[in-house]
Amino acid sequence: MNSSRLIYLDHAATTPLDPRVLEVMQPAFADTFGNPSSFHTVGLRAKELVAEARASVARLLHVREDEILFTSGGTEGDNMVVVGIPRAARVQIRQQCGEEAKPHVIASAIEHHAVLEPLLSLQKSGEIELTIVPVDREGLVDVEAIKKALQPNTVLVSLMLANNEIGTIQPVADVGRMLLAWRKERKTAFPYFHSDACQAAEFLDLNVEPLHVDALVINGSKMYGPKGVGVLFLRRGVKLEPLVRGGGQERGLRAGTEHVPGIIGLAKAFELAQAEREDECVRLTVLRDRLVDGLLQIPKSRLNGHPTLRLPNSANISFLDIEGEAAVLYLDAEGIMASTGSACASASLDPSHVILATGLSYEAAHGSLRFTLGHSTTQEDVDRVIEVMPGIVERLRRMSPTNLDMKYFL
After folding, report:
1. Which of 5, 200, 216, 319 could join 161 in a cystine, given CB atoms 3.0 to 4.6 angstroms apart?
2. What is the rounded average pLDDT of the residues 359-388?
3. What is the C-alpha to C-alpha distance for residues 334 and 330, in angstroms, rounded to an integer?
4. Is residue 97 annotated as a catalytic residue, yes or no?
């Protein structure tokens, strides 16, 4: 390693635990270890702590406390919605649209694998009809495209608030308003509207009313909280078939003993993220733009995602004639931690489905790198990346058997 300082620029994959979060979690590991379902003193104290955390999260989302469900993370929350809602709607759709009708779901082409994979599985098994709505070259969904895809049997629309790979912020509020009008005109509760907000919780206001969502998912590990815990906001009246059965926890929709320390930590992390987000957004936007401007000086490079409607910490750059995985290893040798895309797909050598969905070529997608900044990121860190990256790209291009033209970006 050629740098004495570790430069961590993979905050979209996970964030370090904030010491203030650890401080509030520690008593629950040792003293308040009870099962919240127990009726003795230790159990009741644990139940109180979970209730306090639920109330805190509900206040930040501007929802009722009984609309907050604790999960094991973003993946479980997304699965609960995209699998549970269509299954719960099967009978009603048959009654309304005929015995052969299936629930219809709409999702964008750049959703997280936690949304797309279960939906594709349900489609393959014949449980649902599925429409994947494309995005433009900047990764934005067209509200009208979603509207055109709506059908009488559409039960769910899923659109992430901000993309985990390219950082593009989606027009969730606009889609929500459109769906409200659709439902009002047809006097129906469907379709429900779901948004994966895991990447957005640290940077955007998550008041659900202006967003007009019926289900929203966040994850502790993306906002300096603990791993293995998340939140699902589920609006009253939305029916969900449980994925995990065996107990009455979480309104009977998610069985299992509550992860009390994790729940406490998530609530504290969310509180801190929302309280500090405005100042941090300003600071990180300056650093992000400095990083982007510096990296785009490298020949045959391109910024992926929208240039301004993006998370303040997110920079995704494609470099032609290199392999992103190799670049990550060279950066690691310099003490710089970055990624090629979603950490959940890191075991795959396939190029990012998000980058491909924006219309870039297979070759350009293979050369994409994701830099996501965080609390520890300094200007010196950004300048270090700008310093070492040209040499890494030059070395990898000398090793490449191809020399592609810029038309692959067009």
Report:
1. 200
2. 96
3. 7
4. no
